[in-house]
TrEMBL record:
InterPro entries given in the database record: Aminotrans_3, PyrdxlP-dep_Trfase, PyrdxlP-dep_Trfase_major, PyrdxlP-dep_Trfase_small
Pfam families: Aminotran_3
GO molecular function list: glutamate-1-semialdehyde 2,1-aminomutase activity; pyridoxal phosphate binding; transaminase activity
Cofactor(s) needed: pyridoxal 5'-phosphate
The protein's name in its UniProt record: Glutamate-1-semialdehyde 2,1-aminomutase
Keyword Isomerase in annotation: yes
EC nos: 5.4.3.8
UniProt keyword annotations, A-Z: Isomerase, Pyridoxal phosphate
Family: Belongs to the class-III pyridoxal-phosphate-dependent aminotransferase family.
Matching PANTHER family: GLUTAMATE-1-SEMIALDEHYDE 2,1-AMINOMUTASE, GLUTAMATE-1-SEMIALDEHYDE 2,1-AMINOMUTASE 1, CHLOROPLASTIC-RELATED
Keyword Isomerase: yes
Enzyme class (EC, first level): isomerase
Length: 453
């Protein structure tokens, strides 16, 4: 019979782990008190308050696959800044590039030779012919949507239930019995979702066809496999259907590879031969410096450049970009990441370790008969508290268990293993070792043994 996790026992373990955390982290406790005096919510980004700890863990430093807290404890970092540090903390090549370019100046509103090299490297790696920069994946998605609206003259953005693409207003939507509402926890922000959004379940070709039939959808914004509600892989044939249906409806397709870049050096797009109109990648692309890129077809680039060309405007904004976008420092670091860090050899190492992690977690699940499952997308693993791989966001959401998640994550953190706070994602970087992976597997096993005892 499948083992069940008793909520009362989980509460008890959570309380014990909170106590343990308080004993281990006196310096973080002091800094948390200090932080509350000047930062709203005590942290510079409210997400940093969302770890399952009684107060935030303050970082002292980080190198490779390791984070050290301000009390001197070391952690195997499998969160990796929720993907921003997917190529490791303070990677030697990235560090040297930052130092080298710091001496040449950061930003001047002038293009650099590094920018040309970045364009060429992105073209070769991902296949799309023309590129632009942004400062975050959120912004890149906003610009991609704007471009699709210009190209089609339509307003609606279609997303998949359970998605996350950054703080992009139109995407913070749920379908409540046929009405589009802001998703729980996000304010409406004056958005008329019925006019500008559409939402369907992933992997449902009929629902997609129906949603596109009105001819009013500017673009589908999709991760090629969902990663923000656990991993939801695309079923066989879904991407072909998605591309055919969007083309037939005159709808543009944006593939957001911000997380699925874990698949391989060319992302899911190259590994599965996808053919999007726009391709978005952020987070790790400049080794942790805020940056993102979006690639586009010649046709989409024509739309963008027609619209933004200088004769067209009294203003040079055009709704795209930002003062620090494409700055010289970022481009130099991004070039280094593309040339020296995101290499096939680095991916071979990361994917090998992720396979080891997958096998270890699978063994723990089977031995304790937990009725969970683990999925891997290249260098990224994810375990979900349900026996089978979800087919869509709705199924993945039903497998969530916030109490179990919080207790597990705090237990692991107290044993020197960091997982991203939002779900059970386990990510490898080039500096991760087999011993790091095994430490996570052993701590997971210990957790399960403790809760089931
Ligand atoms: C798929 C995807 N796209 C975009 C974003 C937004 O990235 P950022 O917060 O760096 O803007 C995220 C963030 O988690 C994401 O998962």
């Amino acid at each position: 019979m499948t083992a069940t996790m008793d909520p009362a026992r989980l509460e008890q373990v959570l309380a014990e782990e909170e106590e343990r955390y308080r004993r281990r982290t006196p310096r973080s406790a002091e800094l948390a008190v200090e932080g509350r005096r000047s930062l709203a919510g005590g942290v510079p980004l409210h997400w940093m308050g969302n770890w399952p700890t009684p107060y935030p863990l303050f970082m002292g430093g980080a190198a490779g696959a390791q984070v050290t807290d301000v009390d001197g404890h070391e952690y195997v970092d499998l969160c990796l800044g929720d993907t921003g540090a997917m190529f490791g903390h303070a990677h030697p090549a990235v560090r040297e590039a930052m130092i080298r370019h710091a001496r040449r100046g950061a930003t001047a509103m002038l293009p650099t030779a590094d920018g040309n090299a970045v364009g060429r490297l992105l073209q070769e790696r991902f296949g799309l012919p023309l590129w632009q920069l942004a400062t975050s994946a959120t912004d890149a998605n906003r610009f991609a949507i704007r471009m699709c609206r210009l190209a089609t003259g339509r307003d609606k953005v279609l997303v998949f239930a359970g998605k996350y693409h950054g703080s992009v207003d139109e995407t913070h939507v749920v379908d409540v019995n046929g009405r589009l509402e802001p998703q729980p926890g996000v304010s409406r922000n004056a958005v008329d979702f019925d006019r500008v959004s559409a939402v369907v379940e992933f992997n449902d070709v009929d629902a997609l066809e129906k949603a596109l039939a009105g001819g009013d959808v500017a673009c589908v914004l999709a991760e090629p496999a969902m990663t923000n509600i656990g991993i939801v892989p695309a079923v066989d044939g879904y991407h072909d259907a998605l591309r055919e249906l969007t083309r037939a409806a005159g709808t543009k397709l944006i593939i957001d590879e911000t997380h699925t870049i874990s698949t391989g050096p060319g992302g899911y797009t190259r590994a599965h031969d996808l053919d999007p109109d726009v391709f978005v990648l952020g987070k790790a692309i400049a080794g942790g410096i805020p940056a993102a890129v979006y690639g586009m077809t010649e046709e989409m680039a024509g739309t963008l450049t027609d619209y933004t060309r200088k004769e067209n405007h009294g203003s040079s904004h055009g709704g795209f970009g930002g003062t620090l976008v494409g700055n010289a420092l970022t481009l130099h670091v991004m070039r280094t990441v593309l040339e020296e860090v995101m290499t096939p050899a680095a991916y071979d190492h990361m994917i090998g370790l992720a396979s080891r992690c997958e096998a270890g977690v699978q063994e723990v699940i089977a031995r304790h008969d937990l009725g969970w499952h683990v999925t891997r997308l290249g260098a990224r693993c994810e375990y979900l508290f349900a026996p089978s791989v979800p087919r869509n966001g709705g199924e993945a959401k039903a497998a969530r268990n916030p109490l179990l998640n919080a207790t597990l994550h705090l237990f692991l953190l107290n044993r020197g293993v960091l997982l991203t706070p939002f779900h059970s994602m386990v990510l490898m970087c080039p500096a991760t070792t087999a011993a790091d992976v095994d430490r996570h597997t052993a701590a997971l096993d210990e957790f399960v043994g403790t809760v089931l005892a």
